[in-house]
Amino acid sequence: MLKIAYHPCYGHPVEAGHRFPMDKYPLLIEQLLYEGTITEDNIFSPDPVDEKYVLSTHTKEYWEKLKNQTISYREARKIGLPMSDALVKRELIITQGTIECTEFAFQNGVAMNIAGGTHHAYTDHGEGFCLLNDFAVAANYLIQEKGLERILIIDLDVHQGNGTAEIFQDNPKVFTFSMHGKNNYPMHKEKSDLDIPLEDQTTDSTYLSILKKYIDVLFNEIEPQFVFFLSGVDILSSDKLGKLGMSIQGCKERDEIVLKYCHDHNVPVAISMGGGYSPQLHIIIEAHANTFRIANNIYF
């Protein structure tokens, strides 16, 4: 059975007019339930992650600032969200959801977090709507608790996974792959193990041919024991914060390529949704929903 991490706090409200669409999370669950892609049995609700796992990835000083709400105004502006205890708790719950997804992925091949993909969070600070790096914390969990030595992070959000790249820059057990807009945020890119910068308005055919080429190389050379897949839908041509030219169908085919590789190579995969900022919310929901439909079709 496909297991999906979701908690009501995922839809934590932000200031009126804020550009981060947190309301997409409950709407996505409602759509998947309504159409019958999932039932309530597919959903699990995580608790906050134990801080010992936070500290396996993030510095004690940064974590104390988050926990005690002593983040400076400048640091909060870099994160881009109004800080609160509720927001920090939300991030802890999302991170635990991704950790639990790894456990379900070992059982079922795949598991999904409705939120997550907070790849702009660095070791010692947050950026770009990201406080804690859920993939990094979960990858370190697998290294420490499961003894894994070959983890592959496939980051296909339109923005480079700069925080993830920084966290694992000296860790040979985690290979970071980021395929992103060349001229998009963050303007200063970190160095992933493999970065594929894409030109503005990159279309479906070009994007998918590049992805097929590199994913084949990655699976054959790394032979990953576990995959994290960030399936951001901000690659769509309609996205307000993206600059690529992808269609909903192209985005769907992207997910099929990644998940079929994981399935055919018998590598468990945990998926987080990442970004999506199209002006029309129904486009975001449809593109994200396709990822769940594809996972169901391939694995179940």
Automatic annotation (TrEMBL):
Family: Belongs to the histone deacetylase family.
Single GO MF descriptor: hydrolase activity
Protein name listed in UniProt: Histone deacetylase
The Histone deacetylase domain, residue ranges: 18-280
Taxonomic placement: Bacteria, Pseudomonadati, Bacteroidota, Cytophagia, Cytophagales
GO BP of this protein: epigenetic regulation of gene expression
Pfam hit, one: Hist_deacetyl
Annotated source species: Flammeovirga yaeyamensis
Family annotation (InterPro entries): HDAC_classIV (IPR044150), HDACs (IPR000286), His_deacetylse_dom (IPR023801), His_deacetylse_dom_sf (IPR037138), Ureohydrolase_dom_sf (IPR023696)
